[in-house]
Write a structure and sequence with these properties.
Distance between the termini: 32 Å
Shape: globular
Largest sheet: 4 strands, antiparallel
Number of strands: 11
Radius of gyration: 22 Å
Oligomer: single chain
Strand content: 15-25%
């Protein structure tokens, strides 16, 4: 395996301001960090924990004085989060309007009740975002997807697995009250119909990290549904199945750093691998592939913990994981024999050729 080179988190385009010293942040970047701090405070982060977490995940070293400044100053509007902040504001205004207030009263009270500045003019058709204790896991899941398979340029999912798209829109509906449609694209993939600017803002700004910190398990669920996989460790020459690997691949150094840190905080022992950028000729055309970073979880005990704590919402990945866990009690040759009888690899995926449940 290739060693993972030491590269600054600033190398990623997802949240490019991350890693700067606090005194070098621009006004817009400080406004964004202010939103992060207010979110963490709203969900009971103590000042010391907040300083440590922001340093660990954002790479910004805050003094207690700088933190107090962020908590108490009137921060300017964070323009890179206008759709997200406007959506939170509109959801709050709709909630107050339902309690009998006039529309102008509801909007004014909503503006005053939020701990961050919101746009002065919010389009009436903006997607409302219900930010609450109940919807926080859903937003964390969407945040995980936003730095995975989500189309950050135009919005919407474009994925192979319909189950993934269906679970994503169920999370999206709980947050916004709106249910996107799923349609089949020209290439056979499934697309969701929403073009959610606020989801793109989560990824581009780096705010997704705050939701990963607040609900790490749900963030990892979204990320593993996007970029994860499970595979057996086979040695064909000896015809043995040694163990199980759960793999996460990403091209972003920041996603790699955050995911690895969260898994380690949850008690997983992880390994890492790195694949350098390459050029390959496919069907006579020259393609450039960027560097790939890989995090893997190895072993039966860790796989059982992963299945209970994080797992997969995609049927075929969940099936592979469950079938592999059923083989733990067998010896390595019996595992290999069972696996090769019931699975075959096509287009880089393990597919079960015997769909019925077989007693191992």
């Amino acid at each position: 395996m290739n060693p993972v080179p030491r590269v600054s988190t600033k190398a990623s385009s997802i949240g490019g301001w991350i890693g700067k010293p606090f005194n070098k942040l621009s006004e817009e970047e400080r406004a964004l960090l202010h939103v992060v701090v207010m979110l963490l405070r709203a969900y009971d982060y103590e000042p010391t924990k907040m300083i440590e977490s922001i340093k660990a995940f954002y790479g910004v070293k805050l003094t207690r004085k700088a933190l107090l400044t962020l908590l108490h100053e009137k921060a300017p509007l964070c323009r890179s989060l206008s759709a997200f902040l406007g959506g939170v504001y509109m959801a709050k205004a709709y909630e107050l309007r339902g309690k009998g207030l006039s529309w102008s009263q509801a909007r004014n009270r909503a503006r005053l009740s939020l701990p961050f500045e919101v746009p002065k003019v919010v389009p009436p058709n903006i997607t409302p975002i219900n930010l609450s204790e109940e919807t926080l896991p859903c937003i964390a899941y969407i945040a995980g997807v936003s730095v995975g398979d989500y189309q950050r340029t135009k919005g919407g999912l474009h994925v192979k697995d319909r189950e993934f798209a269906e679970f994503y829109i169920s999370m999206y509906e709980r947050v916004t009250g709106r249910r996107p449609k799923i349609r089949r694209a020209w290439d056979g993939y499934y697309e969701t119909s929403e073009r959610a600017r606020w989801v793109c803002e989560l990824a581009r700004s780096g705010l997704w990290i705050a939701f990963a910190m607040l609900r790490p398990t749900w963030f990892l669920k979204g990320l593993y549904d996007s970029e994860g996989g499970v595979t057996p460790h086979l040695i064909h020459k000896r015809k043995i199945l040694c163990c199980i690997y759960i793999v996460l691949k990403t091209g972003s150094w920041i996603v790699f750093h955050v995911a690895r840190s969260l898994l380690e905080e949850l008690g997983y022992k992880v390994g890492c691998d790195y694949e350098a950028p390459v050029r390959r000729i496919i069907r006579g055309k020259n393609f450039a592939f960027s560097a790939t970073l890989e995090i893997w979880i190895q072993g039966w005990a860790q796989a059982r913990k992963f299945a209970e704590q994080i797992g997969f919402r995609i049927n075929h990945r969940r099936q592979v994981l469950q079938d592999l866990l059923r083989l733990e009690h067998l010896n390595t040759k019996e595992r290999y024999k069972w696996w090769m009888q019931h699975y075959e690899k096509r287009s880089g995926r393990w597919h079960r050729v015997t769909p019925e449940v077989i007693d191992t």
